[in-house]
Each structure stands twice: as C-alpha cells, then as structure tokens.
Amino acid sequence: MTDTEALPLHETALIDVHRRLGARLIEFGGWLMPVQYAGILEEHRAVRERAGLFDLSHMGELHVEGSAAGDALAAAVVTDPRALAVGRAHYSMICAPDGGIIDDLIIYRLAEDRFLVVANAGNAAIVSDELAARLHGWSAVLDDRSLATSLVAIQGPAAAGVLAPLTDIDLSALRYYAIAEGHVAGIPALVARTGYTGEDGFELFVDWDRGPEAWDALEAAGRGAGVAPSGLGARDTLRLEAGMPLYGNDLDRGTNPFEAGLGRVVKLQKPGAFVGREALARVARDGVAKRLVGLTVTGRGIARHGHPVLRDGRRTGVVTSGTHSPTLGRAIALAYVAPADGEPGTILDVEIRGQRVSAEVVPMPFYRRHPRTDG
Amino acid sequence: MVPPELRYTKDHEWVRVEGDTATVGVTAYAAEQLGDVVFVELPDAGRSLEQHATFGVVESVKAVSDLFAPITGEVAEVNAALAGSPELVNSDPYGTGWMIRVRVADAGQVDELLDAAVYEQLISEG
C-alpha cells in the first residue's frame, strides 16, 4: 500500500463488533468503516430477499431547535421543512449561493420546534459549520450530535418483522419517511422508516454508547430470519440499483439539483428567501447544461466513475457511478450527459479503458421493490 | 496454503508450467482481496504478451485490477468460461478459474518466478 496522508480516522462505537464479525475495514469520509463482511454480492442479496444490518454511525446528526427552527432551516436548505408534519421526514439539499450542492440531507421533524438533519459523513463538518452560520440571527440553535449518536439500520423485506418484537413503537403505524421516539431492546431510540437501499427498512438513532447493544439485539433477533451484517460495498450497489445518487460521485458543488434530476425537491415558491434561490430559479427558467441519467451497459464491461460517455463518437458526458448490478446481473451506471442525449432508449457508448462499449439510457430506478403487502 | 507445485509473482498471479505451456491465473489471496469477481477481460488467443505488461483486467463489485503477464509469450488459449462465470476466480482460483495459457518464449523467466514458499512468505507479511 502506498503511504498517503495518515490522518487519524474516526471509529464508530461498533468498531469491535465489526472486527469480531471479520469485516474488511476501509476509510470512508474520514471514518474507518466496514466495506464487507461475507461478501458484497451475498450481503446485497440478503438485503433484497431478507434484511441487512448496517452501521451508519459515520453519518452526521445535526439537531436544530428553537422557536424559529423551521423558518431558519427553510432559509438554509432548498426544501420547506415547515411543511413537514411532526414525525415526518423529507429528502433535501443544502446549496451554495450559485446553486451548487453542498450536501444532500434527510430532514426529520421531531417536534414543532425541533428538527434532525442527517448529513453525509464526509460533509458532516462542512454542513454543521454552514448551517450554524445560516442559523445566525434566527431564534434557533444547532446541536451537532454526530459524535454522540450511533446509527444502526436494518433494511430489507424482513426488517419490520425483526424489529417489531424489540420495540414499543407501533411499526404498522410508522409510514415511509416517518420517525418516532421510543425504545429498541430497552434502549431509547429514534426509529425512522428511511433508508438508502430501495427496500423497506428502519434507521435507529441511539446514544453513541448504546450502538453495540442495539446492533447485538437486532443481530440476535434477526438470526433466524437470515439478517446479514452488511457493509458499505452492498450499500453502494443497493443505492445505485435504486437510482439514488451518492454525494461525491453523482452530486457535488459543481452540480445543481436540476441537473441531478432532483428539481422537484427545490421549493422555489416557498415563503421567504433561501440560499441559492436566485441561481436555482435561473436554472429552472433557462434549463440545464447536463442531466443525470441511468445507463445499462449492453456491451461487455463495467462502466465506472470517470469513464467518458459518447454519442456517435462525440463526447457527451461522463459516468459518475457504475457497478455490476447483482439483482439485474449486468452493468449499470449513472452518468451526466447533454440533455438532448438523455432520453430513455438513446444508444450511447461508454469508453472503458479506451474501448467503446455500448450502453442504453434507461428510465430510473434500475430496481423497484414490490409494494408492501402488510397494508 | 498455496499450491506447492506452482510458481508465483509479486502481483499475485500463479503460473503452472507444463512442457512449453504456462497456465496463468490469480491466487486465492488475490481473489479474496478483490472480493466477488464480476468481470474478467482477457486478450484474444494469438496475442503476444511482454513480461510485466498488462494483459487483462479483473473487476470485483468495487475494485478494478490489472493483470500483469508473468512471462513473455504468445497467448495459446483463453478461459472462455470466465466470460459467463467470472465467479470461478473466487470459487476455484487454481482450477477452473484459470485465465490464459501462454507459449513460453523464455524458460529463464519461469525460473525467476517466486516459488510457493517465497510467495507464502510474501502474503503472510501482508
């Protein structure tokens, strides 16, 4: 291994659990995280067919509280968190004044004047600083609880059945993108029906020190149901099949929400100013210079981040995420291309190690789960 | 344990020499490090390989790794089964997961490859 800058890595409270389970650990977003346990394909399949258990404690948990918390957040992000009912959540983004994406977020409304903002690990400090600055002058305070919170997720069709006996929260009443406060295995927890896998599932926010306990309880309860500890490798293939963008790959400061196909998230008409509004209104009016599309590779090879995309020999864009899809058994990718080249059915080429390999623009997502049948 | 009868490279390839033909694959250690192999790109039969030059690519779900020719020679045969079943690299790296057969151009290069004991030492050092 080549020696790079040896910055000390954060470790989650679950690091010993991962080591016990024989995880392969890698650096991700400044954290030492499990990339796989038994193997990415096996973990991926477990989540699609049964359930997977994830340590997501590297994510940033930013609590915003105060009588003006809703107004302050509405001025800081592109969505309108004031429109959320207590106990509900939505996908959001925080943008720079030029409309570039600083991070994508999930915002949960915990109470009338209390919100939980979840940021990506690699951006948590940036978002924390930026939000704190944007809250200045409002009756709202930011409490960065990233290093005080363990986040354990159970994702997959068996998740509800495994979690239900462990919690005093009525999961049948907890809708998708909802959150409730209660206990899991006796541990105080915020339980959210959210995830990043394209499956039904739950994310459990507990105190940092209680993370291993929560994990152990879920692992034990899930053993009979075939619940598999799952790493960031499977998380990446799962989210990509579900057509969910990853910050740093598919989203960055040089990209705006409209280019990412997420223009519907931006509430240009919400009351009050917000950072990025003028730039984003201009994009909404004038159109985008590139758009994010899904590709299936029809030729031989796997498109990867950075591979050029061509149409009839002319460069039209670049792949931002690509992998072998375990569910579809073929290579899939997300790519930015010229808007005219982004219609489903368009035949493009991806340049993989100098070879042109055929690919087709397809509607997103690549994979959609069967609707829940439990009502 | 690595098979004692094979020769090895520092790039974690193995070489089995039979007469003037050398069969080449990646070691179990390499396969384990790569994770689930989902794609293998190999040269066509008849192509000339230079020792140390890349002759193909092996991709797992997450990683892309070059394959380096352990010796100079012409590709005599390619394992066509890997196109449809790349997972053989993980499940049977020294057997059905073989990659190419090469006509040995310089027997001296074979003698310079690592023996099993040296390779075993190399991987035990990480």
What does this structure look like?
The complex is a heterodimer of chains A (about 375) and B (about 130). By secondary structure, chain A is α+β, with helices and mostly antiparallel strands. Among the domains of chain A are: about 10-60 and about 150-240, 2-Layer Sandwich (Gyrase A, domain 2), CATH 3.30.1360; about 290-360, Aminomethyltransferase beta-barrel domains (Elongation Factor Tu (Ef-tu), domain 3). Helix content of chain A is about 20%, strand content about 35%. Chain A is built from 8 helices and 20 strands. In chain A, strand 6 and strand 7 form a beta hairpin. Chain A is globular and about 60 Å long. The mean pLDDT of chain A is about 95. With about 130 residues, chain B is α+β, with helices and mostly antiparallel strands. Chain B has one domain (about 5-115): OB fold (Dihydrolipoamide Acetyltransferase, E2P) (Beta Barrel). Helix content of chain B is about 25%, strand content about 35%. Chain B is built from 5 helices and 9 strands, in the order E-E-E-H-E-E-E-E-E-H-H-E-H-H. Chain B has helices spanning about 30-35, 80-85, 90, 105-110, 115-125, and strands spanning about 5-10, 15-20, 20-25, 35-40, 50, 55-60, 65-70, 75-80, 100-105.
Name of the CATH homologous superfamily of chain B: RNA polymerase II/Efflux pump adaptor protein, barrel-sandwich hybrid domain
**Biggest pleated sheet of chain A:** 6 strands, mixed
Mean pLDDT over the full residue set of chain A: 96
Strand order of the largest sheet of chain A: 11-12-13-10-4-14
Taking all Cα atoms into account, the compactness measure Rg of chain A is: 21 Å
Protein structure class of chain A? alpha+beta
Largest sheet of chain B: 6 strands, antiparallel
Spatial gap, N to C terminus of chain B = 14 Å
Give the name of the CATH architecture of chain B.
Beta Barrel
Q: Order of strands across the widest beta sheet of chain B?
A: 1-2-3-9-8-5
Low-confidence stretches of chain B: none
The backbone outline of chain B, from C-alpha atoms, is globular
Tally of strands of chain B: 9
Radius of gyration of chain B: 13 Å
**Low-pLDDT runs of chain A:** none
CATH topology of chain B: OB fold (Dihydrolipoamide Acetyltransferase, E2P)
Number of separate structural domains of chain B: 1
- Summed up, the helix count of chain A is 8
Q: Secondary-structure element sequence of chain A?
A: EHEEHEEHEEEHEEHEEEHEHHEEEEEE
Measured by DSSP, the beta-strand proportion of chain A falls in 25-35%
